Every structure is written in C-alpha cells, then in structure tokens.
Amino acid sequence: MKTHIGVYIFLFYLLTLPAAAEPLPVAEPEAVGMSSQRLERIGQTLRADIDKGRMPGAVVAIARKGKLLYYQAFGFLDKAAGIPMRKDAIFSIASMTKPMTSVATMLLVEEGRLFITDPVGAYLPALGKMPVAVMKTDASGQTVVDTVPAKRVMTIQDLMRHTSGLTYGDRGTTAVHQMYPASSASAPRDYTGAEFIEKLGTLPLLHHPGTVWEYSFSTDVLGLLVEAVTKQSLGQFLDTRVFKPLAMIDTGFIVPAEKRSRYAKALPNDPDTGNPQSMINLTKKPTKFECGGACAVSTVADYLRFAQALLNRGKLGSAQILGRKSVELMFADHLGPEIQNNVEKTDPTRAGFGFGLGFAVRRAPGISGILGSPGDISWGGGMGTYFWVDSKEELVVVFMAHTPGPTRLHYRKVINALVLQALVG
Fold first, then answer.
1. What is the pTM of this model?
2. If DSSP states are collapsed to H, E and C, what string results for the chain?
3. Residue-wise pLDDT tens digits, 191-234
C-alpha cells in the first residue's frame, strides 16, 4: 500500500509540474490568420531533406500579432550520435549577432552617450585617419596598393549600415582584401579587441566612407566602440540591457558547461560538395574578444523574443529596451542614392533590398525573388540561421539550423515561401 501511495504521489507531482514557458503567448494559427494545414508543409519539407542528408535538423518559430502559432523542432541535434533536435537547442547565430550589437548602440544614442553621426575616431582613435586604397599597376605589370586621404571620416552610422569602407579578407581577392583578417569568425581567435583595432588602423580602406555598401568588420568595430563607451564587455552590456530584460536566458558569447549538451552540431561534410565543413566552437573557451559581428549563440525562443521586441517598437511585456522612434530609425533604409548598393552580392536572396541599422530592409513589393512586404527587415547567419520581421503582417519568424555551406541560402528561400504561403487572413 505504501508503495502504491508513493507512486500516486510521484505521478501527482509530475502532473502538477508547471509547463515549460513558451517564448510568447500561444494561439491557434487560424486565430491569427494562418492555416494549420498549410503550415504542415514546413515539417514535410524539412523532414524530407533531413532524411536525404541535406541538413541535420532545425528549429522553427512563427509569431503573428504577438502570438506564438508555430514552434517545432525537426531532425537531429547531433545526427552522428542519434540525438533528436530539441526546441531549446543552442545555435551559433553568426551574423545574427549584428542586429543585437546595433541595438546596443542605439541604447547609447538614447542616453546621449554617442550619436550615429559621430566620427568613429572620436572613440577609437586608431581608426580616425585611415586612408583609402588605390590599386595601380607598376612598370613590371604587378598590382600595387597606393593610398589617398579619405574624402570624409568614417561615422558610427557607416559602421551600422556597412558603408565604413572596411571589408572582410575572405570577401574578395584583391591586394587590399589580402591585407585584412578573413572574417568575424577568425579575427577574435587571433586578436584581442585592442590588437584588432590596432591591426585595422594600419590598413587602407577599400572604399571612401559613405560611398559603397560593403559587408565587413563594421559591426565588430561597432561592438568594440560600445565597449569603449560603456567600459564593459559587449556581452556584459547586452546581458544587462537586452538579454535579461527580454528573458533571453540562453543567449551570450559562450556556451557554458551546463548547457553544452544542447549545442547543435552540423553535418561533418557539406551535402553538395562532400567537403568537410567546420564551425566556430563556442563551447571550449571564449574568443579573445566578444565580436559584435558574429560571435553570439542563442536559441529560437530567445531570438524570437528579441525580434518580437523589434516588431513592438522596442517593447516586450513590461520591458521597454528601446524607444519607438529609435526602432523606426533602425528599420529605415539608410542607403541613399549616392551609395552603391551591394547587398544582393552578399546575399542573393536580398535582391532589391536596402539596409537599415543592422539588417536588410525591403524597398518595394517587387524586384526580390522572395515573398514579403515593403519595409520588412531580415538577416541571416553564416552557420545557417535566419530571421525576419514583417511589420505590415505583424509577423516574426526565426529559423535555426547548422548548415554552414551554401545550402543556407536555399533554406532562407524555403522558409520564406513555406511560412508566407500559410497566410490566409
């Protein structure tokens, strides 16, 4: 009898445990104008690709009108070990770190501690007088790099919209590209923040500031500028001002030991080329600096709350992380007609997009080959993550997978189509 009573007590305990908190209030898809039947195509498509070995697994969340209507995990967290994907899986979000660094900057703008029109050199003097490269051919036919003074100084706005004149070493083959560190993933392994800024300060710019959109180390510099102003690490500042207020409990710049079992793994080889593929490992030790361009980890739930706060013009629940006008400025297209727009060259799915303060901004209903609304904002990460916010449709979508090869661009189009075809009201 005592054994039976013990079993009953244990079962009662299990049944009365609080359910795991969802990232947003939950609603049936039909209650917010989406079709449950059509949403099933997401799972059908992803499961088929997982079965074919095209991807290890993924997590997808969709919210409309502030309600969570879809939140599913597919495939494997670790395919080799046979571990199923879980909704709270942790992913390297790579360049989806950039919008968070931009939010950190706008927090300082709101406090009057800096302005986006300020020269970068006022905060990071080593970058105050960078010349601009001019490539010439010498008498022997070799390309040599000469320099000229920049036509104007690099501003914080240039960093936020990628018109600083900086570049990534792995984004081209010119003599100037070869001078730069390869990427946001590699630079913080090789340099401390101070060493990185010192290194950049010895290099020429690829373009005159404010003239060309060039994907670059701009946001890594922006993160170090935030550190210079706040006297905190970027992670500490974001944790206090963004992550904790928004209950982003699994977002940061390293995966702590107690959470490493939730860190998703990529396939060992690219499904198209068969070549080995690797990812930055953020479980072992911190990078030498917390790079604002690509070094964070997060979960779908955490990032959904961050993106929903952007849709809500800076507010989520009782937390108001930014004012409404600050978010409106971030959502605006900051690439004027005088700026050469190369956004599509970096991400072909962003044809016809401009760029705001931290993410791409759709300019018109047409031109782009993906579905959406004018003014929607989006960006993805090089490891396979992707998000967008559509203010017109009151829609937020977060997709996370570890597909670091070119196939990640395919899944940006797949998720875009499968989500938006389910809008019926």
1. 0.93
2. CHHHHHHHHHHHHHHCCCCCCCCCCECCHHHHCECHHHHHHHHHHHHHHHHCCCCCEEEEEEEECCEEEEEEEEEEEECCCCEECCCCCEEECHHHHHHHHHHHHHHHHHCCCCCCCCEHHHCCHHHCCCCEEEEEECCCCCEEEEEECCCCCCEHHHHHHCCCCCCCHHHCCCCCHHHCCCCCCCHHHHCCHHHHHHHHHCCCECCCCCCECCCCCHHHHHHHHHHHHHCCCHHHHHHHHHHCCCCCCCCECCCCHHHHHHECCCCCECCCCCCECCCCCCCCCCCCCCCCCCCCEECHHHHHHHHHHHHCCCEECCEECCCHHHHHHHHCCCCCCCCECCHHHHCHHHCCEEECCCCEEECCCCCCCCCCCCCCEEEECCCCCEEEEECCCCEEEEEECCCCCCHHHHHHHHHHHHHHCCECC
3. 999 999 999 999 999 999 999 999 999 999 999 999 999 999 99
